[in-house]
Amino acid sequence: MIPALLLLVGAGGHALACIDVIEAQGGFRIRGLLGLPEEKGEQRLGYPVLGCDEDLPAFAQPGTNALVCVGQIKSPEPRMRLFVRLRELGYILPAVVAPTAWVSPYARIGAGSIVMHGAIVNAGAQIGENCIINTRALVEHGTHIGDHCHVSTGALLNGDVEVGEGSFIGSGSRIKEGVRIGRRCIVGLGATVLSNLADRAILKQTG
To answer: What is the CATH number of the domain that holds 150?
Structure first.
């Protein structure tokens, strides 16, 4: 069976990591990338940058797959905007899971999300739409991650944690079991979260 074509929206550093996962996963053939206007005609790991966001309607033939490959640190807005636009244009938004990741058959991964190399998503966990579960992150049993979140490299989310829509969980951070993190929060690099965080809370990095 010929793998389906996949258009990558974004051509920065996160897109490179996504390419690596997609090639290893083997379920898709990368059609190319859409980046900034000045990036058109460039190459990313051998794949062409075909255009920019304004060209999304031109590539939206029926049955076309797309993945948002823009990174997320300070704000989820760019990824949210692109995800909504892709859906409006009728793109298929598959979830992509690295073959080196473990996703329990009792977990759920939402449309347009990517689970990177070495990540673990355990039983009963739910990952929303358009999320990044980055390299070696741990999402324990019963944890719910809202739409448009980024769980960064090496973050540890213990059991029954809830993360609200659009939140960022920094690299190496640790979230105590049962903690609830609100919408649009930022948990900094290496931070330890022992109690609930209100919407739009910012917990600074350690060190």
So the answer is: 2.160.10.10
Q: Is residue 22 within 8 Å of residue 10, measured between CB atoms?
A: no
CA dihedral in degrees (117, 125, 14, 93; nearest 10)? Answer: 110
pTM above 0.85, yes or no: yes
82 and 121 share a domain? no
Sign of the Cα torsion 57, 35, 25, 2 reads positive
From 88, 117, 137, the end of a domain falls on: 88
Task: Read off the DSSP letter of residue 24.
Answer: H
Q: What is the domain range of residue 26?
A: 4-88
Query: pLDDT tens digits, the chain, 207 residues: what are they?
Result: 677 999 999 999 999 999 999 999 999 999 999 999 999 999 999 999 999 999 999 999 888 999 999 999 889 999 999 999 999 999 999 999 999 999 999 999 999 999 999 999 999 999 999 999 999 999 999 999 999 999 999 999 999 999 999 999 999 999 999 999 999 999 999 999 999 999 999 998 776
37 and 106 co-located in one domain: no
One domain for residues 105 and 82: no
The total number of structural domains in the chain stands at 2
